Amino acid sequence: MADLPNKARVVIIGGGVIGCSVAYHLTKQGWSDVVLLERKQLTSGTTWHAAGLIAQLRATQNMTKLAKYSQELYGTLEDETGVATGFKRCGSITVALTEERREEIYRQAAMARAFGVEVEEISPAEVQAKYEHLNTDCVVGGVYLPLDGQGDPANIALALAKGARQRGAVVKERVKATGVVKDGRRITGVQWEDETGQGTIACDHVVNCAGMWGREVGQMLGVNVPLQACEHFYIVTEAIEGLQQLPVLRVPDECAYYKEDAGKMLLGAFEPNAKPWGPIPEDFEFDQLPEDFDHFEPILEAAVERLPMLAEAGIHTFFNGPESFTPDDAYHLGLAPEMDNVWVAAGFNSIGIQSAGGAGMALAQWMDAGEKPFDLGDVDISRMQPFQGNKHFLMERSKETLGLLYADHFPYLQKRTARGVRRTPFHHHLIQHGAVMGELSGWERANWFARNGQTPEYEYSWKRQNFFDNVRDEHLAVRSGVGMYDMSSFGKIRVEGPDAEAFMNYVGGGDYSCPVGKIVYTQFLNNRAGIEADVTVTRLSEVAYLVVTPAATRLADQTWMERHKGEFNVVITDVTAGEGVLAIMGPKSRDLLQAVSPNDFTNAVNPFGTAQEIEIGMGLARAHRVTYVGELGWEIYVSADQAGHVFEALHEAGQDHGLTLCGMHMMDTCRIEKGFRHFGHDITCEDHVMEAGLGFAVKKDKPDFIGREAVLDKQEKGLETRMVQFKLTDPEPLLYHNEPILRDGELVGYLSSGAYGHALGGAMGLGYVPCKGEKPGDVLASTYEIDVMGTRVKAEASLKPMYDPKSERVKV
Ligand SMILES: NCCCC(=O)O
To answer: Which residue ranges does the record assign to the Aminomethyltransferase C-terminal domain (predicted)?
Structure first.
């Protein structure tokens, strides 16, 4: 019988680099009774054939922090464990072959500096000097990261496993997890079998690190882990003299990366049309997939031009191995929403080695403390929607996600595959009027409207895109007339029961002991008063509330409430699809509503922050007087069956009121002028609600709510950082987010969001500025610049919204 304990604090399923890293880091947290089960041999799924590139720069600050951590850990792992990891800091170069790509990588370089990553923008000549074998035809620029590196993937995993064993973990090969014992939302035991027998390990936690088996292991554990294996191709040449000192090279415009590999050259591809693969055979172990030369040939042809030495060096290995890809190209980490003790670290989209160290560290800290150590929203498994586990969806989407790694990452880039799964009740009406759709969490959303004769499609660029003027017109229509846009994708969660009021007062920072019909803008806080959710809560009755959340966080927010329900007698239900929502916004919105409804929309009956049941057209709806664009306006909630009719009634009446159909991009440009925060960018679980400038939404004298102590503490001790709104003084440059903020010439932070303020006439952003020990006004006594692609652009700064600072327009 396998030598396994009957009980462990945690059972980790999967012995690739991720499982080994989780075991390593849990033991570092002092967890000794850690068991890792690997069905075959450690690393035998994907890890063994990974390329082992170790980059530090990722798309957000925290993802960069994790990648940097991996790089630093791998630099010390050999000394700690005695296992040679092959890690070397050889640096990396990414080259641009187009002006668009140059803008992308130079913007990334500016961002890297804000995130503390050493980086140099280099000219084609400097690229050539650092990589003499490269044919620099068409190269228009490059970036060099001297501390990037590479390592031996299998040995990094084995070193992590050894480190875990040295601190008491049991790491067992050839033992398969076959089932679980469940008690409600918890798993109490993992069943296993090996060639000698079977058994059960009682446990407090389970971690799914099963890599490309993650979805199926997730099903066994009762959790949704959307990922799909795809074929990843590379070749390795015969040995070539003098490669040892070369940096890693990425030529994303040719879908290619190059690295020295034991004296040979490895060329790998991220092609735009990938090949999903499966089902995975039961006996898969250190296996590879059949060659597909036709598929790889275009990459190879370009590569031979780019690196002529490849033509001389014969190909030693043509490799095709499976790697797992997720629907949004970000990996899955964290506590699965469906269960209270099932954790996930899987779906690493071909960046498993560079991510493993940081992901293992973050997950171990999260498991140990019971709360996220910092914002992990980019990868938190709770961002996934239930439908995204659908196999057909995953097969379709993964054809695209592999190639997205090296695609141009233009602002507002939309996925082209697996679209149309979630449509609002207004979908066909919007398309009929020229809507150009984007996708979020599966929802098709009108992002902007094409004009008559204009092709309703994105033309991507880092400069003004083809919709810039469309969005400007939509924006100005909302500022001066009336606009209508579809908000149906926003999550709607009904909280009801005898304890609904008490529960809401505990889980949220606002005051929910309010009259029926009142709307409360509020946050759910964690114990550090960081913001877990940014929601609008409407009291529907004495015992029922409607919580409206961003589309992407409905599941996370509902899960947060479920997990804090305790003994409160409430039922929490997702009712998102039951109602369509049309936002009618702008100074003429009242006139338009009055034209289609007999109800009274004046301040006397329906003041700002209240909802009323209304008749509209020939139907019924609920009018919520709130705004995310900073104007007089209403959100009209209408049951799905009557939604089409209400759209038609409003649209027809709107012709006499200059109604403009608008999209989500307009919502973003308007909200940034008004300084409204965007969850996930401006406000996250690591941003204190007071520092985010949202202290006004917290009822501090409530006796008991999550985060209360941390709110009172901050009130007493003062802010260390505060949210500032910026507007570039030059109307030309554009801001997207992550651009560095310079205060009196010093780098102090970066923009958490950015968009164009069409009414104020310039690009605008929000960002945190350190202010410890300063008076509020001191922050504004400085001069500010924003680094846009290496150029410092002067910016005005404000603590109050630059647009309508006293909110007079919303309350008229
Ligand atoms: N597994 C290949 C990683 C590709 C990259 O880091 O660019």
So the answer is: 722-804
